[in-house]
Specification:
Layout (H helix, E strand, L loop, with lengths): L1 H6 L2 E4 L18 H6 L2 E2 L12 H17 L4 E4 L3 H9 L9 H14 L1 H11 L1 H6 L5 H14 L3 H6 L12 E5 L2 H18 L1 H10 L14 H8 L5 H24 L4 E5 L5 H12 L5
Parallel strand pairs: 1-2, 1-3, 4-5
């Protein structure tokens, strides 16, 4: 936000959950005041029961990039959904629509058999996706199995046959790291803050609007565990601890994913001041501050 203000840039979100309306606290969307400081794009562009995927994201992000470029406006693509960034940088495909009955069947099998068994199944029907998707990533495992069940074609094949995104810009990637103990402490505190801000109430609001916890948008960190709490599966302190644990695990997978990206300038957010971080990022992006 500080860097964007300094260079007059706009932010393009690269977050697979901030695209959904009514999911504010659990996705840590920028506040109204923050959006007043810096214009944000691709936030609140779909309802929770809408189909939204990496291909749609890449198309819409490229449209925004095109508009900003024609105006000569700098932009920063920000956030941590690796698959969406990959689709934007390397190409995307038009994902097939998954029939509700297929989605329900795969979800029921996952509930009955567990994540390990589902990932083993994925490795048999789609070895390439089985290698790429982490064994502890139930959401992407189920998505890959849904695509295979619905189409008879592995997800990896859909990706290979996808359309390449024409590179009109040379991406310059900057990532921030923190020591693991500091990162985990920040995650634990953030989960407590989200509960204090009303995450449970937000989930109740979504239920009142008629959105099912089985929707792909809501089978995600924070929401999934709170819905289980509301169903009486565990009390709130246990729910908080579980969200913290699952988020720490997700952070590890996130870093594994992004570490595979080439030509990333990694900056230590604990060792550098905010000014130093900003200066190094601006230099990497070829921008000059005010």
């Amino acid at each position: 936000m500080t860097i964007a203000e300094e260079v007059g840039a706009e932010v393009i979100s690269c977050d697979s959950r901030q695209v959904y309306r009514f999911m504010d606290i659990g996705t840590a969307k920028p506040t109204k005041a923050e959006k007043g400081r810096v214009r944000h794009h691709l936030i609140d562009v779909a309802d929770p029961d809408e189909e939204y995927n990496a291909g749609r994201y890449a198309r819409e992000a490229l449209e925004v990039i095109g508009r900003l470029s024609r105006k000569g406006k700098p932009f920063l693509v920000v956030a941590g959904t690796g698959l969406y960034l990959q689709a934007l940088l390397r190409g995307f495909f038009d994902a097939p629509s998954i029939p509700p009955k297929v989605r329900k069947r795969v979800a029921a099998e996952a509930e009955a058999l567990g994540q390990a068994a589902m990932h083993e199944r994925l490795k048999k029907v789609d070895p390439e996706s089985g290698r790429r998707i982490h064994p502890n990533d139930p959401q992407r495992t189920m998505r890959a199995l849904e695509v295979y069940e619905a189409t008879g074609k592995p997800l990896s094949e859909w990706w290979r046959n996808g359309r390449a995104v024409r590179k009109e810009h040379e991406p310059r990637l900057v990532g921030m790291t923190r020591p693991r103990d500091v990162l985990y402490d920040r995650i634990d505190k953030r989960v407590e803050e989200m509960i204090g801000q009303g995450l449970v109430e937000e989930c109740c609001f979504l239920l009142r609007r008629g959105y099912s916890p089985e929707l792909n948008s809501l089978r995600t960190l924070g929401y999934r565990e709170v819905f289980e709490h509301l169903e009486g599966k565990r009390d709130l302190p246990m729910t908080v601890a579980l969200i913290q644990k699952n988020t720490r695990n997700y952070a590890k997978r996130q870093m594994t994913w992004f570490r595979k990206e080439k030509d990333v300038l990694w900056l230590d957010a604990e060792a550098l001041s905010e000014q130093e971080l900003g200066d190094k990022a601006l230099k990497a992006w070829g921008m000059k501050g005010a």
